[in-house]
Design goal:
Layout: E1 21-22, H1 31-44, H2 52-65, E2 69-73, H3 76-86, E3 92-96, H4 101-109, E4 113-117, H5 128-134, E5 139-145, H6 154-164, E6 167-171, E7 179-180, E8 183-184, E9 191-195, E10 208-212, H7 215-224, H8 246-257, H9 259-277, E11 283-285, E12 299-303, H10 305-308, H11 312-321, E13 324-325, H12 349-355, E14 358-361, H13 369-384, H14 386-391, H15 393-400
Parallel strand pairs: 1-13, 3-4, 3-5, 5-6, 6-9
Antiparallel strand pairs: 2-10, 7-8, 9-10, 11-12, 12-14
Helix pairs in contact: 1-8, 2-8, 3-4, 9-13
The chain binds pyridoxal-5'-phosphate.
Pyridoxal-5'-phosphate (PLP) is lined by residues 75-77, 99-100, 102-103, 145, 171, 173-174, 195, 197, 208.
Amino acid sequence: MKRALTDLAIFGGPAAFLHDLYVGRPTIGDRTRFFARLEWALNNNWLTNGGPLVREFEGRVADLADVRHCVATCNATVALQLVLRASDVSGEVIMPSMTFAATAHAASWLGLEPVFCDVDPETGLIDPDHAAALVSPRTGAIVGVHLWGRAAPVDALHKIAADKQVKLFFDAAHALGCTADGRAIGGFGDAEVFSFHATKTVTSFEGGAIVTDDGQLADRIRTMHNFGLSPERAVAEIGTNGKMSESAAAMGLTSLDAFAETRDLNRTNHALYSAELRGLRGISVHQFDARERNNYQYVIVSVDKTATGIDRDQMQAILRAEKVIAQPYFSPGCHQMPPYRRDPPVRLAHTEYLSEQVLALPTGPAVSSEDIRRVCDIVRIAVTNGELINAQWDQRMCRSS
Ligand SMILES: *Cc1c(COP(=O)(O)O)cnc(C)c1O
């Protein structure tokens, strides 16, 4: 166990872990069941194009999200594109800058212009007042993001979308199985999008889904995601190939079978991190509203340099030397990334403040409570000696490189 400054790997101590510890490892579930499903698909000679496994997966995701329609896709980025295109969105799309680049890319790829909105400095969720202020005659849609699985302010955004007559969608990539005011995420706005990428809480290797209660929109998306082919198999409009395969659905179903267990483990992990780091100056573990259903997929800490003496990047480097691969989700904000930077730069004070502080720590079923205690020991030593570490930083980093 590490106790002193010199125990840290950046100060020459041995790394705390033998192998890299990642923010999220795939939640595969029972692989016997996965192989059984795959075998069944092969015997069934139906590998894609809306096969039985994809339909079963869509049904289960729709149930979980408490919506009438679900279209499974090859990933969430294409799902976002399908939603925007099938809703005839044009012009500008207002979205938080504090998100994964894919939210912005999906709009840009269609020739739409992302307009970045600031966030609440505590929660990282889209600020509805700022979103309302950004609405212009060119606005086609607002895309809210349920960052880290916490619900965006859905009611306020519904009101803005209705008042201003713009479409409203949600990037729910983090929010499978979560609620907003007790209502399942999935049914808000005109449509919502989930991701089943390998790093998400339920995985289908790569995958995504669009969920909505709007049957007409779902039908159009279904057509568009299969080359624009109508159910009668005639080309009805311009489409793309956004389909999910049977092998992906086999993984998705198996991962979904394990979802409740994954969520419970992640909740335990989150509680342990919170307890271990409680009271540590300058370190706060972002909490989830206990009245909501959460998936606890992310453990996010804020590192406040004014109190710790070291900044988030230094904390990340200290952890990395110990083979703890913590990730700055999401930093920088999209508005500061080269493709989206403007001259003069757009300033989003809360996004810039928060994105400099946040760090996602390893969790998921592959991380044990012993691992978490060791990660927290490292954070504790780093914070307790923050000023000293910072004073020696340049020297240290030169020597170790
Ligand atoms: C992962 C993620 C996406 C992209 O999902 P893919 O399925 O990998 O395309 C989009 N938005 C957010 C917020 C994400 O975290």
